[in-house]
Amino acid sequence: MPATRPPKKDLPPPPNNKSGPTSGPDCPRKTGTDASRSAVRNALVAAGARDYWPDAAYPPSGYDGELPTITVPASLMKAIAWQESGWQSTILACDGGIGTMQVMPGTASWLNERFGPNYDVNTLAGNVALGAEYLEWEIVYFGAFYFGSFDLDATAPVSADGKEMVLRDVVLAAYNVGPGEVEIDGDGDGQGDYLRVPNQRYVDNVTALITECVCLSY
């Protein structure tokens, strides 16, 4: 386990969820014609199956071990995409979220700089690749610094009261609200001390969709 966490400049920006209109005739809106369900399915499966860390511009800061192959299960990719967009590939949300995986513009820019090559967040293939990269970054970050494992089923007593949490829940929560809302600096030293899930309903919805989503039949 690493002794220190990456500096803040190495962490993704918070989602810009609080700016812009939240309703209106142009919110949300489509920017084109949605890809077919079969095309979205194939893109999600392919993106989740790729290990993006070997192409990263630099290894995880503070982690000295070798990373295993990090991928995202197809069922998880499908469930998140269904929760985020209903598999609509050209939807632009009121908060700025783009496409199938509802990737925020700032997150897309950070991921392209962090991992490379540059993916176009406005295309189906680029959008789902960025979503998968973000999930794989979170798996490694929280797995390395809090769980000592990159298995999504891993548990550890990392909540404020020392209760067990599941890595998958933490990753899902962070995908939705950003890592900064999940990792809490309790003593003000600039390092996260414990984790929380501030969006339990989102986590529960996606968890249910992993096994129950109609999208699994596409």
UniProtKB/TrEMBL annotation:
InterPro entries with a match to the protein in the record: Lysozyme-like_dom_sf (IPR023346), Transglycosylase_SLT_dom_1 (IPR008258)
Gene3D superfamilies, sorted: 1.10.530.10
Highest taxon listed in the record's lineage: Bacteria
Which spans are transmembrane here?
none
Where the record annotates domain Transglycosylase SLT, the positions are 72-183
- Region (Disordered) residue ranges read 1-37
Name this protein carries in UniProt: Transglycosylase SLT domain-containing protein
From which source organism is this entry? Luedemannella helvata
Q: What does UniProt list as this organism's lineage?
A: Bacteria, Bacillati, Actinomycetota, Actinomycetes, Micromonosporales
